[in-house]
Write a structure and sequence with these properties.
Blueprint: H1 2-14, E1 19-24, E2 29-32, H2 34-40, H3 44-47, H4 52-56, H5 66-73, E3 77-85, E4 91-102, E5 108-117, H6 119-130, E6 134-139, E7 144-147, H7 149-155, H8 159-162, H9 167-171, H10 181-188, E8 192-200, E9 206-217, E10 223-232, H11 234-244, E11 247-249, E12 252-254, H12 257-271, E13 276-279, H13 286-296, E14 304-308, H14 314-322, H15 339-342, E15 347-351, H16 358-370, E16 372-373, E17 382-383, E18 387-392, H17 396-401, H18 407-413, E19 416-419, H19 430-445, E20 451-452, H20 454-462, H21 468-482, E21 487-488, H22 495-501, H23 515-529, H24 534-541, H25 546-555
Parallel strand pairs: 13-18, 13-19, 14-15, 15-18, 20-21
Antiparallel strand pairs: 1-2, 1-5, 3-4, 4-5, 6-7, 6-10, 8-9, 9-10, 11-12, 16-17
Helix pairs in contact: 12-13, 16-18, 19-21, 23-24
């Protein structure tokens, strides 16, 4: 019976994928399975009866022996990484689990140890940790199962912080949810490549990254998770901004030097709590600047409340600003809070401030000086914690001189001053703005307009835009009504716009000319649109070689203002 039991026990142990050996209470090996033979290089008959320390020469033998500790403490030890030496004296990393063997009376008979060769896994971890890209894997429940050193460096999270967490909890990316790259590749069984997104680091800072994600398949072809690599492109993004001089805050898109100077000081203005006065023609984007200041400020989590002072009758504006009590006037049936109360702890944006009456100017001055107000029909003073940003399309200094605007109120508002240039003074921004509005209206109107033809862009560049950016946006919105193809052409532009722009140069469609004359005009206009950049002009005109374009520029004696 004993031989039969030992034979059955040995068959069971040999069927295990993990290595296993058993020792008696004198540390002599009594059982040694096939997996143990494969890892150690020793045959079963060579080790039976010998002490385990003679066979394995582990770095924890003697005083650090795992089996001895688990027997002494009566507690199993699980997944401890140690190094043993095989028969050829080669060091091998293994993960071991050990437990004491006891008889029915609870007396210790020896110990059992299970171990697994970790060479491949450690090599893989070393390879992953040597990669400069962040790499992490998830299971089908979105739980992170591995997190390399580069991922730690990029995100600020340690692997111990990330393992077992869902990837959305760690990265808080701009595509978490339905657009998740990991989710898409698991669902479609296909990789997701070269997507630019943003993630949030442990310190709360958002950074741009480029990602690739692929599904992970087991030996049966079943998906058991996914792997994603990501690369921090903050420096590349910053460099691109410097090279192209293109900055963006919210919907503010520009490469104009004057606008860039304004955007560069916005963080400093935002950190302050001082009043701000934004000046500029109608349609120059004053509210966008105000929203950008609020968004960059410490008040960004609290309300941004805007009120157009020029659009509300003076008799109603005071109650709109400060609210009113029930019975303050005929239709005041119940108390109502004003815009100031609604903006508490946040930002109050007073647009078209130059249109308010003298009587309201007095009340607004008191509010700005003391940050207190009384609702209409109340004698109770309320203290407000609100930052004020004002804007106007009028020349406030001029109307102060004329006595139409209080000088003390002007200086109270004019702590930080921003003067927005009209679009006619920043025409380099027109192509950027057109691209921005095309993307915007493609989303809103569910279309797929790819762009605008050079001829249509040429017309837009020659127009002066009395309505500024708002007018340009309206023009592009109009084209989306009449354009049903891939590109916006001159015939899609408003007819009055085409008539107003006329032609400052020969029209290559209407005037007879040589091919050389037409080519010169096309090259000159394309260079102007592309700010003198050779490669961009080559791509637009279909010229294959930069040298060919430079030769034609010299041949036609075209003046260059800037070159890529």
């Amino acid at each position: 019976m004993v031989n039969t039991f030992d034979s059955q026990c040995l068959d069971i142990m040999d069927s295990l994928a993990d290595a296993l050996f058993i020792v008696d209470k004198f540390w002599k090996i009594t059982h040694f399975n096939k997996a143990a033979e494969q890892i150690s290089g020793w045959k079963r008959e060579e080790v039976i009866g010998k002490e385990c320390s003679e066979i394995f020469s582990s770095n924890i033998c003697k005083s650090g022996c795992v089996l001895a500790k688990c027997i002494e403490n009566s507690e199993p030890i699980i997944n401890k990484l140690v190094f043993i030496k095989n028969k050829n004296n080669k060091s091998i990393p293994i993960s071991i689990s050990a437990s004491a063997l006891k008889d029915a009376m609870g007396n210790v008979m020896g110990g059992i140890e299970i171990f697994r060769d970790m060479t491949n896994q450690l090599q893989m971890e070393l390879i992953l940790d040597s990669i400069t890209d962040g790499v992490f894997t998830v299971d089908k429940d979105w739980k992170i199962t591995s997190f390399n050193t580069a991922a730690e460096n990029i995100t600020g999270y340690k692997a111990d912080d990330a393992l077992g967490q869902t990837c959305s909890d760690i990265f808080k990316s701009s595509i978490c949810g339905e657009n998740c790259a990991v989710g898409i590749c698991i669902k479609t069984h296909c990789p997701v490549l070269n997507r630019s997104i943003t993630i949030q680091k442990k310190d709360g800072k958002r950074i741009p990254v480029k990602i690739n994600a692929s599904p992970l398949f087991d030996s049966n072809g079943e998906i058991f998770g996914a792997v994603e690599t990501f690369r921090d492109i903050s420096e590349i993004t910053s460099l691109r901004k410097q090279v192209t001089q293109r900055f963006s805050f919210a919907d503010i898109v520009t490469k104009s030097k004057n606008m860039i100077k304004i955007l560069e000081i916005l963080p400093d203005i935002s950190r302050s709590d001082s009043n701000v006065l934004i000046l500029g023609e109608s349609g120059t984007g004053k509210e966008l600047i105000a929203r950008a200041i609020h968004g960059l400020s410490k008040r960004h989590r609290d309300p941004f409340i805007a009120i157009n002072c020029g659009a509300i009758p003076d008799t109603l504006l005071e109650s709109e600003l400060f609210g009113y009590k029930a019975g303050a006037f005929t239709d005041a049936k119940k108390d109502r809070e004003g815009k100031v109360a609604a903006a508490e702890n946040g930002t109050l944006f007073l647009d078209e401030i130059g249109d308010i009456s003298h009587s309201l100017q007095v009340k607004l001055l008191r509010f700005l000086q003391e940050r207190v107000y009384e609702p209409l029909g109340s004698n109770k003073t309320i203290k407000a914690n609100v930052r004020v940003i004002a804007a106007t399309n009028k020349d406030l200094k001029d109307i102060v001189t004329k006595g139409e605007f209080r000088e003390d109120l002007f200086y109270r508002l004019n702590v930080a001053n921003i003067l927005l240039p009209p679009l006619r003074e920043r025409k380099d921004d027109i192509p950027l703005l057109v691209e921005h509005f095309i993307k915007k209206f493609n989303t809103i109107k569910e279309k797929a307009i790819e762009g605008i033809t050079p001829e249509a862009m040429d017309i837009l560049l020659r127009y002066d835009y009395p309505g500024n950016i708002r007018e340009l946006e309206n023009i592009i919105e109009y084209t989306f009504i009449v354009c049903h193809h891939d590109l916006i052409t001159p015939r899609h532009l408003p007819e009055n716009l085409v008539q107003k722009t006329g032609n400052n140069e020969l029209n290559i469609c209407d005037e007879p000319m040589t091919i050389q004359q037409a080519e010169k005009i096309l090259i000159k206009r394309s260079l102007q649109r592309n700010n003198g950049k050779i490669m961009a002009t080559c791509r637009e005109l279909g010229i294959k070689s930069k040298d060919t374009l430079r030769k034609k520029i010299r041949e036609y004696e075209i003046e260059m203002t800037e070159e890529e």
